[in-house]
Design goal:
Helix content is 33%, strand content 21%. It is an alpha/beta fold and 755 residues long. It has an eleven-stranded mixed β-sheet, sandwiched between helices. A seven-stranded mixed β-sheet has the order 28-29-25-24-23-30-31, sandwiched between helices. A six-stranded mixed β-sheet has the order 17-20-19-18-21-22, with helices on both faces. The protein starts with 5 loop residues before the first strand and ends with a helix. Bound molecules: zinc ion (ZN) (2 copies) and fe (iii) ion.
């Protein structure tokens, strides 16, 4: 190469630049521009050295930011002019490992348009279910260690054939350095177990699987982050069987549709939701505009919403070619409340009784991940369950959280580790009270620690001594910071948005232990990272039965009736009281009177439970948060009425409860009452916020907590707040439910340590 007039530049690029086809992309643009130099991965990013004319180097810089591959996220580019090394050509050098620093792991990426085209094309990967390229395919669920090279993935067991090897080594091939590269002659294989028969030819397998689904059978499929169970979503018999197998009577199932066009026959979808559902992350999107009577009530369990998603694996596309239905139930392969199965041994054991077969393959799953669930609220994407496609995207922090572990909540657990100025949240783990889930939690903390070269020096956890996550944290015997549950909810949003001044925090939630020993969940606080001051909440009401009240909303309803009417509750004439066991009810009242197992509670979640039960739409709940979901399901956007309530620092809903009972007696519709109730809560929240503003002058408002998964309530409140010129922050990438708690714990602990 003629080097006269050439310059040399050195780039250090940080962000998510490994495992996303970044080096091949660099190679291609360097090649196009006829630049010399090299590129290599090191644990904390990608190093590039280029030599060429100044104008070409500038072009290179520009392309770097405009044309980067779909999965790449460039967070910083350090560029300097260096001395020319008189390079002859452009090379990709081997990765350099170092234990000290790490880089980002990419989440799993849905099959890309190029691979999809090839799946149906004429070359050797036609119909190949493991097709992938540098722009798509498994990542998080495939990686065993850093750096992202083939030998550190579960693909290391498969020897590349010569043709694949050539593609892998050809910088101009779109599979150049695609770590999971494979083909029918060298890659993993599916087998199908059915009735003691084993099928191992893929075209017969997929035909048989399709056949079974067409006949209404349930099939277990090995997916990316675990096994799924699949059946025809339009076949009531199959759905019933699936419910029996999962021991899941009422909870709605998510549905995978053949295509966007097919989905539209069943539910309305906005252009924004369309983008989300088609994105490479391919989450389950909760859509509210379900068209009436189109889907089996066995799917939706009576809700007007549906968790919908589109195929993300080549296997899903190939399966839809074989089935007649437009819609498949595709749910995690496990009984309710236990973590998704991911080992073949467990799959063979657990699924031996299902009506169809078990579709296995011989590529190991490095770690489990459920499908993610998102919802569009306030015209933005809000993640409700963070797993496949999102984990392990880090959260960039404006403080150092290095060496800190946040143990998370108990019910919808995610933990979080701090690496310098990043918080890395685990995938959704679930309810730690389940023994298998707790084991998954322990394993996963170990896995993250190993992969991220992480050793906790400080642990943060909830204040609740009974949470298994708290007990785990205490057993570590390292410095510990206990963080109040709702403070963590607010701090999590502050961390997501990089706020570090005092804010007005509103956390409406299920339950969380308060600093006064009572159960909180309607908190108004002035919060910073280091501390918070509680300035308001809903009135305390005894919660008879403590935790069991969350499964039995009638208990909350009864507690409110007793609270409002005292001993006269018995003379109220509403259908609710005819639907409950009065004997039990009387015992409960006695318990409240005597203060037995009836902690004081001000949780918004329990108030939603109470109203749902009073309206008899959910007296006992079959799954977490069913009552609030059913109440939300009744809403009518056109009603602007509300109930009265008394508010100072403490909000009393005594008059609202009386008015609701009156409305029930007047045969007002459930829809009207539910809507008025939601409006009342939004107005109560805004009054509380206004009060906090008058006391402090703070205009920044953070809202979070499980109750704000309710789209109507959240949008209403955001609207009211903006009308009054408040600056509002509502969680987006981090769940507003307990799945987001760990990030808040991390943030609080990091700041208390800095004190
Ligand atoms: Zn691809
Ligand atoms: Zn091959
Ligand atoms: Fe919570």
């Amino acid at each position: 190469m003629n080097n006269s007039g050439n310059i040399a530049q050195h780039f250090k690029i940080k962000g998510r630049v490994q495992g996303v086809g970044f080096r091949p992309f660099i190679y291609r643009i360097a090649h196009q521009l006829k630049l010399a130099g090299y590129v290599y991965n090191q644990p904390d990013g990608v190093i590039i050295h280029i030599e060429g004319t100044e104008s070409k180097c500038t072009k290179f810089s520009n392309l770097l930011s405009t044309d980067a591959p779909i999965g790449a996220v460039i967070k910083s580019v350090e560029k300097k002019v260096v001395e020319s090394k008189n390079s002859e050509s452009f090379k990709i050098l081997p990765s350099r490992t170092s234990e000290s620093a790490i880089t980002e792991i990419c989440p799993d990426i849905a099959i890309c348009p190029d691979c999809l085209r090839e799946l149906y094309g004429n070359d050797r990967r036609n119909g190949y279910p493991f097709i992938n390229c540098t722009n798509c395919g498994p990542r998080f669920t495939l990686i065993n260690d850093f750096p992202y090279d083939r030998q550190n993935t579960t693909m290391h067991e498969f020897q590349m054939c010569e043709t694949c090897g050539n593609e892998y080594a050809d910088p101009l091939d779109r599979r150049f350095h695609a770590q999971p590269i494979s083909c029918p002659s060298c890659g993993p294989r599916y087998t199908y177990l059915y009735n003691d028969k084993i099928l191992d030819d893929f075209s017969s397998i997929i035909r048989e699987v399709g056949n079974h689904i067409n006949k209404g059978k349930i099939v277990a499929l090995k997916g990316l982050g675990g096994y799924n169970l699949a059946c025809d979503a339009l076949n009531s018999g199959a759905i019933n069987d699936l419910r029996q197998f999962k021991q899941r009577e009422k909870k709605p199932f998510a549905v995978m549709f053949r295509s966007l066009e097919n989905l539209k026959k069943y539910a309305g979808i906005t252009p924004f939701e369309t983008n989300v559902i088609q994105s490479w992350r391919r989450p389950i999107v909760i859509l509210e505009g379900l068209h009436e009577n189109n889907l089996d009530p066995g799917i939706t369990a009576g809700l007007n919403s549906i968790g919908a998603f589109l195929p993300y694996l080549p296997l899903h596309y190939l399966l839809f070619d074989e089935v007649e239905t437009d819609a498949l139930v595709l749910t995690s392969g496990n009984e309710s409340e236990v973590p998704i199965l991911y080992t073949e041994e467990m799959a063979r054991h657990t699924f031996k009784e299902i009506s169809g077969g078990i579709l296995l393959n011989n590529r190991k799953i490095a770690r489990r991940a459920d499908d993610s669930v998102v919802k569009v609220i306030d015209d933005s994407l809000c993640v409700m369950r963070r797993a496949r496609g999102y984990t392990p995207d880090p959260v960039d922090l404006n403080f150092n959280a290095d060496g800190m572990l946040a143990a998370g909540a108990e019910l919808s657990n995610c933990f979080c580790i701090g690496k310098e100025k990043q918080g890395i949240l685990s995938q959704h783990i679930g309810d730690l009270k389940n023994a298998d889930t707790y084991e998954f939690y322990l394993e996963n903390i170990q896995e993250f620690s190993r992969m991220y070269r992480f050793k906790p020096r400080l642990v943060a956890c909830d204040m609740h001594p009974d949470y298994l996550s708290t007990q785990y944290a205490r057993e570590l015997k390292i410095p510990i910071t206990e963080v109040q549950h709702h403070h963590a909810h607010i701090a999590s949003v502050m961390a997501e948005f990089g706020l570090n001044e005092s804010v007005i925090g509103v956390s409406y939630d299920g339950t969380g232990l308060g600093t006064d020993g009572n159960i909180w969940g309607s908190e108004l606080m002035i919060a910073g990272f280091q501390s918070f001051q509680r300035v308001g909440h809903f009135e305390y009401v005894p919660l008879p039965g403590g935790d069991s009240a969350t499964r039995e909303p009638w208990r909350s309803a009864l507690a409110y009736l007793w609270h409002v009417y005292g001993s006269k509750w018995q003379s109220i004439d509403i259908p609710f009281l005819k639907k409950i066991d009065l004997n039990k009810a009387n015992k409960l009242i006695t318990a409240i009177d005597k203060g037995i197992n009836s902690p004081l509670c001000c949780s918004a979640g329990r108030l939603f439970d109470a109203v749902a039960a009073l309206l008899t739409i959910c007296i006992n709940s079959n799954y977490h948060a069913e009552a609030p979901m059913r109440l939300e399901n009744e809403l009518n956007n056109k009603c602007n009425d509300s109930y009265s309530f008394q508010s100072k620092n403490v909000v009393s809903f005594t008059s609202m409860i009386r008015e609701i009972v009156q409305d029930i007696n007047d045969h007002r519709s459930t829809t009207e009452i539910a809507t008025k109730f939601h409006n009342t809560i939004a107005i109560a929240a805004i009054r509380q916020i206004q009060m906090a503003f008058e006391q402090t002058g703070i205009r920044k408002v953070v809202i979070s907590g499980g109750t704000f998964q309710n789209r109507y309530l959240t949008e209403k409140l955001l609207h009211l707040l903006r009308q009054k010129d408040f600056e509002v922050y509502y969680p987006r990438e981090i769940p507003c439910n307990d799945g987001g708690i760990a990030l808040g714990q991390l943030a609080v602990a990091a700041h208390q340590k800095m004190k």
